[in-house]
Each structure stands twice: as structure tokens, then as C-alpha cells.
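Our consortium's second objective concerns turning raw sequence data into structural hypotheses that experimental partners can test. To show how far this objective has progressed, the report includes one record in full. It was chosen at random from the queue rather than selected for favorable results. The single chain below, 137 residues long, was entered without modification.
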Amino acid sequence: MDLPESSNPDPGHGWTGDQIDRIIANLLRLGLVLSAAVVVAGAAIYLARHGGQTVTYRVFRRNAPDFRLVENIFQAGARFRGRGFIMAGLVLLIATPVARVAFSVLAFLRRRDHVFAAVTIFVLCVLLFSIFWLGLR
């Protein structure tokens, strides 16, 4: 959601479009790097513990049901389980664009652009609904 300069009714308030773009770029970059680091750490832990095991491809095994809840994922990561770290990294990766939309709401409100803020709040609600309500089924 690039912010058009003309959408700011009062240019004396809030951030400029360039400042917002830089903050969003840094937010996305930080989320990607952090999630990648957590996934790589989880892969290293997983391979250190299970790298020598033989894999049987005849039987498909789903993820353990305890990894369906975010709390369980972070608890497994806190116990230094490799799959918990990997799943936590994926949760962080999914949370990154959600954080970007949430920041956009704040930026629009700070710029006093209530129309774009309302639309972005709607988008944020749809994202959160799809993650927390539809994702739990």
C-alpha cells in the first residue's frame, strides 16, 4: 500500500511517503531475516538430532497435532526442538506482512488520512480473521 502524497490532507502532520516507505521496507526486511535465521537454526537443531535417521517414504506422516496452535509451536521452540524452531520461523514469516498492514494503519492515522486508514483496517481484519478463525479449522 504505497502512500500517495496527494492523499495527505495536511502535509504538516505525520510522516512523508518516503519515510513510510523506508520504515515498511525495513520492517519487511527485518521480518524476513529474523524468520530465516529462526528456520536455519531450527534446521541445524533438527539435523543434529535426527540427521542420521533413515526416512521411509512409503508412509506419509502429517505434522504432529501439537503444531497446529501457535502457543505449542513456541513452547516446542523454547524446548529447543528443531521442528518447533522451524515452525516458529514460518509463523514469523506469516506475521511479517500482517505487521506491515498494521503499521500502514498507524501511518495513515498519523497522516490523518481516515479513508485509507479505514480501508486498511478492513484489510487487517480480513487478514486476522483468515489467520485466527479459518486457520484453526
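The partners drew two points from this record. The chain is about 70% helix and 0% strand. Residues 17-50 form the longest helix (34 residues). Both points have been shared with the crystallography group to help prioritize constructs.
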